[in-house]
């Protein structure tokens, strides 16, 4: 069989372990030099392909590539750039194929969420019709855990671990202070449509911590919420609240959108956490503290789940192996074979079934009152946060790698306007 | 020499390592049963002494006490309850002595910051005049790092490590996204009066990350700040901002107090981070993300500095050794003997020189433009965040201990009204 180059790109919000998938792709590709020439990475994701800005990963040392396994963020840059539909912007897809052709790229590994699965699928289809067939394999990644078929998405387990640990630690803190000071701790977590990350905060309930979760899946009911918080404080002297950024009123407005104005009358973008905290203070009078974890949660490689790191790596590795085995338009997936003891294997999902399908929390994972998680949810989550996989440190900080990221020479005339 | 019981209490905001000091006190006391009977701990700090709610730490297993070394928060409860001056409320001090006398307490170990050092000092003085002399030893603790004499305060090093690591990780994240999305990341950190914690965020500048720090020590200059952020984005395509909760305008108003009102006209308590982020968006148009670390930073035992844990333990151990050697009205202190390689030893500070003295960042630690840290500051900070000291995990979460916390029987008649 002939040798072809490979193209790899990172898409959308980055995670603590997306580079572990990159590591899996590149290390595996390096094991088959007779089949895969160079892995070219898109600088800033798919934009790098469109603008023919291709990073030569062949210039990176084995040690640097190995270090990707423990380095958070997107080592080649990611982007939020969604290709339009084939009908609306065929020229972008055609441009991709032209660039692939110019650089002798036969494998397209696209590491992202639902949108990139869709792009991957379309590239695969179009490349056939354009007479330059490319094997397109999607590598799953999303902290939101919203891809179908795969049991979970690499990136999610580490965020879940971070939120569970942080909620546990901060709850210990507020419990210490509750007698004379803070009784309420509110932590805001990511998840605009799905409450998977918020659910992870619910794991602290096993540690005798009264926790109230506000899911995006459950319409906010202020009266019932305040009653629940009050009952917790009366029983435990404190209460922890985990609020998803997507928590919303029955009319669809996010809790974070309070119509707040600053002194100049500008709309104030706040978070849901301060809104919830102030609501409790005004109604119940309890002193509060609040935190917004934001990027800290998805970048926290220092506290990654070992399970998550292993799965992220395995997805990257499997993507290359699938391509070499002749597969096309597929995505490696995590298949859970047992929850206790936890066991999983790598499966394969056709992209036609992945693209444009969003997975939400099953209603059976949310407790009847809407403020907590069920035993089924615990059983699902606990394996995903199992194990620690610490990065090496130097001078007190993680020794994360920065790659050389040198581009190969362009081969196409002119430039492409995005 | 005769045997006496000891009293130990935690005061003020808790930290990731205050229990490591408790561990040092109790483990060391257990080595001298002929001198120290039982360590009685105040439930919820000094309030436990005033209300005669004394926890019998003798009922805790050696394993549970050992686990305090890696458990954040205050295991016995802390409080924000400042004893008034001797003149204003002599009855509280007299009550303390009565309780100590009733429970045969000859040693008073008080683990806290400036206020508790002051209380400790007064108890020592008053107990002499009341004819029931108690040896009062203060054990230093404060994330604010604002105690004098000691080179640093246990609790600070771990917060500094957490903020430095989190700032590094989130900066990697925003750098990945900057091409098409977020260019600004703002993280808000603790420190209402002193910028020690914010300074730790400045350590990421060594990792080629453009970071702008807003210290409470430097009056906020909006124009210069925005110019600095703009210059960074033009050079690096992104910029990280570390804002101290104490950052303020020239007239003293905190950045967080923006006169913001919600839809009902209520004053909105926000954070400094969203204010700064929105300011950048409105003036420069850059997309932003922001985080408020709040309790997460001081509770993050999962990422404690090994140096900090060792010093916290050493301070607790030294407090007991000082007491047994006959010292009174003193505080163990960290004495730095070398920065590179880092070396330190335990010193002793008289409480008369500790009480009511606050230590600020030296101006020489802040860069000339007011937005960064100097090499001298780096040299000071780096040893304090050195080393990792991970807790054990179970089911994906740290296996922190909860003590039995059983009280001994009261011996005094009636109750004490706080």
Care to describe what's here?
Two copies of one chain form a homodimer. Chain A is an alpha/beta fold. The first copy, chain A, has 13 helices and 13 strands. Chain A has helices at 18-30, 46-50, 62-67, 90-102, 114-129, 156-177, 196-201, 222-236, 272-284, 295-299, 306-324, 351-354, 375-384, and strands at residues 4-10, 36-42, 54-56, 105-112, 135-140, 184-189, 211-214, 239-244, 288-292, 330-339, 342-350, 393-394, 397-398. In chain A, helix 1 (18-30) links the parallel strand 1 and strand 2 (36-42). The mean pLDDT of chain A is 94. Chains A and B meet through helix 6, helix 9, strand 9, helix 10 and strand 13 of A and helix 6, helix 9, strand 9, helix 10 and strand 13 of B.
Summarize the structure.
Chain A is of the alpha/beta class. In chain A, about 35% of the residues lie in helices and about 20% in strands.
